[in-house]
Amino acid sequence: MLYRVMADAVVGLHLAFVLFVVFGGFFAWRWPRLAWLHVPAFLWGASIEMASWTCPLTYLENDLRVRSVAAGRTDSFVEHYILPLLYPELLFPDGFPRSGFIGIGIFVLVLNGLIYWQLWTRHRRHPSNS
User: Fold this and answer.
1) What is the pLDDT of residues 87-101, one digit of tens each?
2) Is the pLDDT of residue 73 over 60?
3) Handedness of CA 2, 65, 8, 10 (dihedral sign)
4) Would you list the domain boundaries of the chain?
5) If we measure between CA atoms, which residue out of 6, 122, 128 comes closest to residue 63?
6) 10-19, 67-76, 98-107: least confident range
7) 24 neighbors 34 (Cβ within 8 angstroms)
């Protein structure tokens, strides 16, 4: 039971990180210093998607899931409903297309690039606001 709870906690952390990667630029709009955390995070997230790397949180979660299976656990709410949000390949019987992951990476780069371009132009017009 402990391993399942720990694995679910890692999934929660992973989901929060993914949401921060995608939408953190909007928070940086309100709190510009947050950009120092968000820019490396969104570059990392986009790189993971586009290069087919595996996030270290995925390795940790998988290890905890294996340990919980050994302890006889059944699927949890998180495994059933949240994991497909993090791992789209779980929703596709033949696997999520590689182009889909590249598209996700490009979306993250373009969205956050636009946000930071707006922040940068705002800062150049009104340097005292940041």
Assistant:
1) 877 778 787 888 888
2) no
3) positive
4) 2-129
5) 6
6) 67-76
7) yes
79: number of Cβ within 10 Å: 19
Tell me the pTM.
Answer: 0.80
Distances (CA, A) of 11 to 17, 94, 99, 104, 119: 10, 24, 24, 19, 31
User: Phi and psi of 73, rounded to 5°?
Assistant: -80, 160
Q: What is the largest CA-CA distance in the chain?
A: 60
Question: Which of 64, 58, 107 lies closest to 83 in space, CA to CA?
Answer: 58
* Average confidence score pLDDT of the chain: 86
Q: What type of residue sits at position 49?
A: E
pLDDT grade for 83, boundaries at 50, 70 and 90: confident
What is the three-class DSSP state of 58?
A: helix
